[in-house]
């Protein structure tokens, strides 16, 4: 869809549409490479980033690596030895990903997929040890502190990956995730509340939101137009709030509309619409 909208912008130039891809060829190359940010490598390949959907490609690689290591080490019966081997392999993957972040941005953000092994293994250990049920609320003060330290040390660009200190960033990411899980668990006790129902819907249709957020970021120029016209009159704070509200509103409209559009909805929600229709046949 990004390719199509970008092509329309090239044919019908206007201030509210940006021709993100200069040509179909560059767009297809960018789609195949799947970069989330500027591409760099010793070979000086010139590839345009595809944008937010880099995450889906990278996550696919990350899950295959993680599942492969877990299967290959499953025959080791001693749990302590199994944990050491797995932890060592995932640590080496993460170190390799961090080193590659200084050398080359690989296709499908393999760099990020390598570093992500630490996040995946941390999640696995949390689930296996039932950690969330065993720790007291006081621990979340420490997790919040770690999260803040990671945030204030500087920007963590997972797409590369790079940050002022990757170890602190990973620890802060895990700690922040535990805090969000705790808040989400608390919110789940109020399933009938309208805000909770909306949050649940956003989660269920997150793929639609991600895809249309990508379109909004790259080819729709409304947010930039709003910012340029409002910042001089309302100041940066109010303008930022309006811009963020627009971003959320744009993907919310898409989220509500897509399930009611035959054909298009099967592309974004194949399990719910395409596969169900094929089974009926």
Task: Describe this entry's structure for a reader.
It is a single chain. By secondary structure, the chain is mainly alpha-helical. The protein has two domains: 136 residues, no CATH class; 92 residues, no CATH class. The protein contains 13 helices and no strands.
Keywords:
0% strand, 281 residues, single chain, 2 domains
Number of domains: 2
Unreliable residue stretches = none
Shape: globular
State the helicity in percent bands: over 70%
Distance between the termini: 28 Å
SS field, number of helical segments: 13
- What amount of the residues lies in strands? under 5%
Q: Structural class from helices and strands?
A: mainly alpha
The largest sheet, given as strand count, sense and whether it forms a barrel, is: none
Overall mean pLDDT stands at 88
Strands, count: 0
Q: How much is the radius of gyration in Å?
A: 22 Å
Give the SSE string: HHHHHHHHHHHHH
Short description:
70% of the residues lie in helices and 0% in strands.
Write the topology of this structure.
Blueprint: H1 2-11, H2 24-33, H3 54-72, H4 79-100, H5 110-128, H6 131-134, H7 139-153, H8 166-187, H9 194-204, H10 206-218, H11 222-257, H12 264-268, H13 270-280
């Amino acid at each position: 869809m990004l390719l199509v909208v970008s092509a329309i912008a090239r044919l019908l130039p206007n201030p509210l549409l940006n021709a993100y891809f200069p040509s179909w060829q560059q767009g297809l190359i960018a789609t195949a490479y799947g970069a989330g940010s500027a591409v760099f490598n010793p070979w000086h390949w010139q590839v345009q980033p595809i944008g937010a959907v880099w995450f889906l490609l990278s996550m696919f690689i990350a899950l295959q690596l993680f599942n492969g290591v877990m299967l290959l080490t499953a025959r080791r019966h001693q749990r302590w030895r199994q944990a050491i081997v797995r932890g060592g392999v995932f640590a080496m993957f993460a170190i390799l990903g961090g080193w590659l972040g200084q050398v080359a941005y690989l296709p499908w953000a393999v760099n990020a997929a390598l570093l992500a092994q630490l996040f995946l293994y941390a999640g696995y250990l949390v689930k296996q040890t039932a950690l969330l049920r065993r720790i007291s609320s006081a621990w979340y003060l420490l997790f919040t502190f770690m999260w803040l330290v990671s945030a204030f040390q500087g920007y963590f660009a997972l797409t590369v990956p790079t940050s002022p200190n990757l170890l602190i960033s990973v620890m802060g990411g895990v700690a922040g995730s535990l805090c969000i899980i705790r808040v989400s668990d608390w919110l789940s006790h109020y399933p009938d509340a309208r805000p909770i129902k909306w949050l649940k819907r956003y989660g269920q249709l997150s793929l639609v939101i991600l895809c249309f957020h990508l379109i909004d970021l790259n080819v729709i120029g409304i947010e930039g137009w709003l910012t340029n016209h409002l910042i001089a009159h309302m100041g940066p704070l109010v303008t930022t709030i309006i811009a963020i509200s627009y971003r959320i509103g744009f993907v919310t409209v898409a989220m509500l509309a897509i399930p009611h559009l035959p054909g298009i909805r099967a592309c974004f929600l194949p399990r719910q619409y395409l596969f169900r229709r094929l089974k009926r046949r």
